[in-house]
Amino acid sequence: MQAYIDQLIQNGYFAGMPKEVVYAIAMVLAAFIVLSVFVAPLAGVTSWLERRVWARMQSRVGPNRVGPQGILQWLADGIKNLLKEDLIPSAADAKLFSLAPYVVFMGFLCTFVVIPFGGTLIVADLNIGILYILAVTSVVVVGILMAGWASNNKWSLLGGMRSAAQIVSYEIPAGLAVLTIVFLAGTLSMQGIIQAQGWAPWDWFLFSNPFTFAAFFLYFTAALAEGNRTPFDIPEAESELVAGYVTEYSGMRFLFFFFAEWGNLYVIGAVAATLFLGGWQVPPVTSDPILLGALQFVVFFLKAYLWVFIAMWVRATLPRVRVDQLMALCWKYMVPLSFVCLLGTVSWMLAFPKGNQFFSIVMFVFGLLVLGYFFTRVLFQLRHARPELYFKPHI
Amino acid sequence: MSVKGYIKDITDTVASVFEGMAITFSHLVRRPMTIQYPDKIPVPIQETLPRRYRGILEVDLDICTGCLACERDCPITCITIGIEMEKETKQRKFTHFDIDVCKCMYCGLCSEACPTGAIRHSQEFEGASYNPAGLVRHFVTEPSALYKPKKGGETDPKLAAKADTGQKYLDEFATPDGGAAAEEG
Questions:
Q1: CA A26 to each of CA A2, A34, A117, A203, A262: distance values in angstroms, whole numbers, following the listed order
Q2: Who among B10, B32, B36 is closest to A56 (CB)?
Q3: Which stretch of DSSP H or E encloses residue A164?
Q4: Residues of B with Cβ-Cβ distance to A318 under 8 angstroms
Q5: The domain spanning residue B106 has which CATH number?
Q6: pLDDT tens column, A148-188
Q7: Closest by alpha carbon to A330, among A222, A216, A217?
Q8: Are residues A317 and B20, on separate chains, in Cβ contact within 8 Å?
Q9: CA distance A165 to A163
């Protein structure tokens, strides 16, 4: 991005303007384009898709009236929320209350700076990319705690406190799982991590050794918990806390929390795809830079969105855990296991300094076998329930 | 906690999540239970109703004799009938025949009392209206003559068909036992 701007300046555009001003304008423009063209529609469509997927898994239909199959439902919801009254409770701390949704939103949106959509499609390839993501997603907890405290409501405060405890706890297994990959790749840069992998599945870090395979699921679980997703959505547990820290919010501010939640799903998927699934790596099929860029974008998007789908699927499957179960899962199981993964990967690197491709292929076949066994279980369920099958996505 | 128990906890968690995910995935390819009333349904909803469903009352004025039996039998007087004699022709004509659907409790007493089966429950139940007045069904648009049953059966084929329909309704549905005897016999 910066190289591109430098080139424009050298070619004589923006003559007479200080370099810093051009950079600032370019940054604002890039942020605006990313937000309005990519993030907002993505979060919106994800909200609709989640409701549809969730509905089908519960033998319902879901929203299918606004636009073709309801795909414009998110626009209708957005307009509805924009037109609603923006209430601020009289006992609330008005300034913090108004600020909190934006802090949460900013914490999530800042991650898009380092998300590598393609080989050249990245806003800024920071050399501390993954560390930056872990850092800015922690800002979300400040916003949630702010919302919980400023609402001056017992449900909100409990929700905010739970969220703080949860996010801070799950940072550790997530960070350790990320660290295993950082060790393998030898870099913190997002592009560097992707370049250390290949397009073939056995070149991905996921199948590098058994420990990274386990680390991947530890990362995904911890990321779900950090994103306050079911089964770890105790900060907004409806049956206990009304809506947790969003209880007192209405209108657009309410929407901002959920905007961040659904957008955050894509960030989880993108980080998982970058660290473990080879990112935008594609087989060398073409040398045309535009075609290659488009292919890389599509591959990366599909890899990331697969995990968005799986997060929806998990949400439709698992019940919410209790607070003590949540903490037990983190501290008694996930933290020790992620240390095992970390030490295991380090030992593996000592044993095979150049990597072990044969074992990676064995791991890949093992992964395929697990997937195959999964589908036999799905068929088992279908055989025993004898339901009326309906394969079309639309109804 | 023993090491064995610890490892069992982990394997149990993985196995149960695995199995649960398989169950929800299998639901993804099942037909949803939802009936998308009113527009996206395979057959009109009226055709899926039970045979003796008591919907909103309808009147076939062509075979109504104007005996006022239904009006008298209605426990909540939701039926109002007006009949006037035309002075020149000495013919009695309906001026109005209104049924207030708001009041009707679908007891079916009017249809049992009707000698020709002119008043009967239809399969219709979608009575939504913007005001209560819209729920009053007016069956007389312009004054029309009363029906006089002829001795020895109806000769006009059009009226005969209607009379048969009414008689069939009386025999099969509009009996105190709800037509159960007719169905058995």
A1: 9, 12, 19, 36, 27
A2: B32
A3: helix A154-185
A4: 17, 20
A5: 3.30.70.3270
A6: 888 888 888 888 888 888 888 888 999 899 999 898 888 88
A7: A222
A8: yes
A9: 5
Q: Count of CB atoms within 10 A of residue A87's CB?
A: 14
Closest chain A C-alpha to B84 CA, distance in angstroms: 52
Nearest-Cα distance to chain B for A211, in Å, is: 15
* Residue A93 Cα distances to A100, A142, A152, angstroms: 11, 15, 7
Of B8, B12, B30, which to mutate for an interface test with A (greatest number of A Cβ within 10 Å)? B30
Torsional sign, CA A62, A40, A89, A84: negative
Which residues, including other chains, have CB under 8 Å from residue B92's CB and lie 6 or more apart? Answer: B66, B83, B84, B85, B86, B145, B146
pTM attached to this predicted model: 0.79
What are the chain B neighbours of A381 within 8 Å (beta carbons)? 22-23, 26
Rounded CA separation A281/A192 (Å): 12
Total number of domains in chain B: 1
Measure B44 CA to nearest chain A CA, in Å: 17
Confirm whether B111 is domain-assigned.
Answer: yes
Sequence-distant contacts of B90-93: CB under 8 A, at least 24 apart: B91/B145, B92/B66, B92/B145, B92/B146, B93/B143, B93/B144, B93/B145, B93/B146
Asked, for residue B26, whether it belongs to a domain, the answer is no
pLDDT in the model for residue A369: 93
Q: Which two structure tokens, joined as six digits, stand for B6? A: 């610890």
User: Per-residue pLDDT tens for A85-103?
Assistant: 888 888 888 888 888 888 8
For residue B53, the enclosing domain spans 49-176
Looking at mean pLDDT, say which of A207-211, A231-235, A304-308, B87-91 comes out highest: A304-308
Q: Percent of chain B, pLDDT > 70?
A: 94
Q: Which of A312, A374, A381 is the best mutation test for B, with the most CBs of B within 10 A? A: A381
CA distances, A142 to each of A101, A148, A281 (Å): 10, 10, 35
Q: Is residue B31 part of a domain?
A: no
Contact A303, A128 (CB under 8 A): no
- For residue B180, the model assigns a pLDDT of 67
Nearest to A267 by CA among A311, A206, A230, A232: A311
Q: What pLDDT is attached to residue B182?
A: 62
Q: Is residue B13 part of a domain?
A: no
Cα-based distances in Å from A372 to A34, A217, A306, A309: 38, 18, 17, 19
A367-394: per-residue pLDDT in tens?
899 999 999 998 888 888 777 778 777 7
Contacts of B24 in chain A (CB under 8 A): 57, 313, 316-317
Residues making up chain A, counted from first to last: 395
Tell the residue number behind the tokens 């600020």, with chain if given.
A99
